[in-house]
TrEMBL record, chains A, B, C, D, E, F, G, H:
Taxonomic lineage from the root: Archaea, Methanobacteriati, Methanobacteriota, Stenosarchaea group, Methanomicrobia
Family (UniProt): Belongs to the AIR carboxylase family. Class I subfamily.
Domain PurE residues, every copy: 2-127
Name used for this protein in its record: N5-carboxyaminoimidazole ribonucleotide mutase
Pfam families named in the record: AIRC
Enzyme Commission code(s) on record: 5.4.99.18
Pathway: Purine metabolism; IMP biosynthesis via de novo pathway; 5-amino-1-(5-phospho-D-ribosyl)imidazole-4-carboxylate from 5-amino-1-(5-phospho-D-ribosyl)imidazole (N5-CAIR route): step 2/2
Superkingdom classification of source: Archaea
Amino acid sequence: MVDIAVISGSKSDQLIVDRILGRLKDEGVSFEHRVLSAHRNPKELEGYVSGTDAHVFIAVAGLSAALPGVIASQTHRPVIGVPVSAKLGGLDSLLSIVQMPPGVPVACVGIDNGENAALLAIRILESGR
Amino acid sequence: MVDIAVISGSKSDQLIVDRILGRLKDEGVSFEHRVLSAHRNPKELEGYVSGTDAHVFIAVAGLSAALPGVIASQTHRPVIGVPVSAKLGGLDSLLSIVQMPPGVPVACVGIDNGENAALLAIRILESGR
Amino acid sequence: MVDIAVISGSKSDQLIVDRILGRLKDEGVSFEHRVLSAHRNPKELEGYVSGTDAHVFIAVAGLSAALPGVIASQTHRPVIGVPVSAKLGGLDSLLSIVQMPPGVPVACVGIDNGENAALLAIRILESGR
Amino acid sequence: MVDIAVISGSKSDQLIVDRILGRLKDEGVSFEHRVLSAHRNPKELEGYVSGTDAHVFIAVAGLSAALPGVIASQTHRPVIGVPVSAKLGGLDSLLSIVQMPPGVPVACVGIDNGENAALLAIRILESGR
Amino acid sequence: MVDIAVISGSKSDQLIVDRILGRLKDEGVSFEHRVLSAHRNPKELEGYVSGTDAHVFIAVAGLSAALPGVIASQTHRPVIGVPVSAKLGGLDSLLSIVQMPPGVPVACVGIDNGENAALLAIRILESGR
Amino acid sequence: MVDIAVISGSKSDQLIVDRILGRLKDEGVSFEHRVLSAHRNPKELEGYVSGTDAHVFIAVAGLSAALPGVIASQTHRPVIGVPVSAKLGGLDSLLSIVQMPPGVPVACVGIDNGENAALLAIRILESGR
Amino acid sequence: MVDIAVISGSKSDQLIVDRILGRLKDEGVSFEHRVLSAHRNPKELEGYVSGTDAHVFIAVAGLSAALPGVIASQTHRPVIGVPVSAKLGGLDSLLSIVQMPPGVPVACVGIDNGENAALLAIRILESGR
Amino acid sequence: MVDIAVISGSKSDQLIVDRILGRLKDEGVSFEHRVLSAHRNPKELEGYVSGTDAHVFIAVAGLSAALPGVIASQTHRPVIGVPVSAKLGGLDSLLSIVQMPPGVPVACVGIDNGENAALLAIRILESGR
């Protein structure tokens, strides 16, 4: 049993992931982390998402960041997306994450803002009915 | 007792608010709606936020949309921000809502995307520990 | 046996789809069209992509347009992405489609430019080894 | 009694603050400086704004820079906002500061342009009826 | 003797000017309005700016909006700039007005936001030493 | 006989070209590379394009990157464009390459993304009728 | 013998062309107009550019507007580029025209600003050594 | 008697100016250079512009770059504007220079592209009637 599942799309996002994990550890919630790309590991991603009992997902991705939206289409749990600045200052990943079509919601936080992703996940954990 | 509190910054956001409320009603969760500006009604806003027992907040705002962030600084509940396209196609409100400083998280959805705000709120309601 | 598979993410993209299909018909290549969202119909999408013998895919999508990239991760055929202007003049879908991570290529054409998607598909059909 | 109150949202804005303070000192006007975040110290901020007799406020903030607008909603004095470039070259803070809703005016100067904030404050000081 | 001088760069800005003048009239401050382009009427502009005893200037301009900056270089009074959306949603005039070089400050308000220009001018009028 | 022709507009694009050539070599397809500017070597460019029997073209260019479009107007083979980030984070070259007028298609990949250009070219090679 | 050659890339640019021609007629300079696309009529374009004795070229184009740059590579006369707003408010054509590589200069005027193209051409006509 | 007058708005633009002067020297045309700000030295600027017999002006400026437009309003000679990247990658100065109102034309070249300014000036010198 784990509270929060953190998934990053590439090893190059590790710096942002470390801030998330550090903050979650400080706050005393349980978590696990996987590196799984929506494009390169779709099967492993789907298997992991459907198999975990995490309450909240945090997805970290740069460029045309499909990861948070793909996870949101595979679970009914809340999914937090963290855009990473790889090109164009992160505007590409921000728009890719936040502009989801109606029906598949993603909770986007600021560019490279791992800390807020962790804090938002904890707020969600503590706010269910 | 109410599940979700929807707050919009101005009457001009009503079209987006209606989509949120309609969707929440369809899903059978309880909610209430207030029009309270972070800039023009700060006291009423603070009073309402501290007094409600809502589990999740949805804040709708255009232009330099401070409303979601201000609410997030007044509660420990999750706050969902909905940017409204009034100028620049909504880029101003999107950046104002999503680029929160570390420590005060807001869950941003897409521009004018009231439906996803409602759906994200319901996911959060159902996902607490 | 079909030459080109055209997939759109939503019925609201039909105007762009019609231009693609019209042009393909004019050029005398065979094609079929499906409305399948990467987020709302992931299983049907995967089934269709793996089952068709089309040589080239054309994927039409707006907002955070994950469709072309998801298809490209499910096939080794060339995938052409057509960004649709729904918000921000189409900048969101353009960046979502074109800024793919290394390893999963998508061939992006201009915003709402269905005609060029059709013409590019035909060039590809006629240029294999 | 002080002429100008300079408030910055974070210690990371200190470089811009130093340019403001240096210029104010050169010009021989009295001032004081506080680090108070609209999101993290709302009570202290409100107490300071309502308690000071400063004629003009200068608010320095990056990202989704709500500080100038929040101050402007708490005082009838002129408020000058200085956007700081933390992400996206400062476009986020610029739009957050300048695109205020009708009714709560903020005087925005250029990105990182502390000198002009100081000079504008002095012009205002010397121009009342 | 007049409190506020409103200058617009072109007759096409009249809609924004009307909102400014209406608000100033409501607030009971005295004002006058001129249509003077920084590019097409530089001499008349300079003559008017140096001759008026207005306490505050409001300059309204679209496109590459040089008017507020030019006025600010001709007076030591505060100058408020109002960007008008003629092309690119007003981003061109916003950047032209707000990104002034150090030494010549302009107080920029939001795109097409005549009301806030009027309100800011009144705050300035009432806040001198 | 060569599979793929790689053309770059300037020697300053060599870093991106090297990634393309390296990847093509790894994949075992034949290729050749020329440095030919659409603006500075139009005759040599036209001569090379009309003379080669390459199946696919990859064109690498920064700034107002006309090279891919000009090649596409000189051949009926597929042309892949790679925008290079020289100014504005590469937004200028991205828009110059992707926003082709109807009738002359270019397959655009991500900014500086030479690897995907190579992979897309290989997909095309293997997908003709 | 003609003073100014006006070339537009598409019939859809005619509204802007009409403003140019109207202004040139008013000013009493001689001119001729051709519709020639850099991508669809490269041979006719080159023939026309090399054959005319016009002193100045005005090139009107939207989207990835290669026309002005291609003309500038075929003549040593000054070339004025007029970006047309077809998509993204004209930002695509503006960047395509203005961001020319060193060595092939184009004189860019504002988006859809045919009048300034005409006036700039006349200034050039009257300013040679 | 001088062919080309180069005016820069600030000493911080010197790197771009040096490229212009170097290229003009190589090409054997006569020139002179002044550092004159439209905002800080309006009188000296106007005196210099009206007094010189230069055929062409090159104006170099960053931020809200009013210099080229102001010069164009003071002379009937062609004025070339060179945007300098100081903030936002130079997008602010590009839009400030290129988006001139109808009636006062400026010939804009690419961001930081001093070489093309020099080459365009030479083309103009050699192309009068």
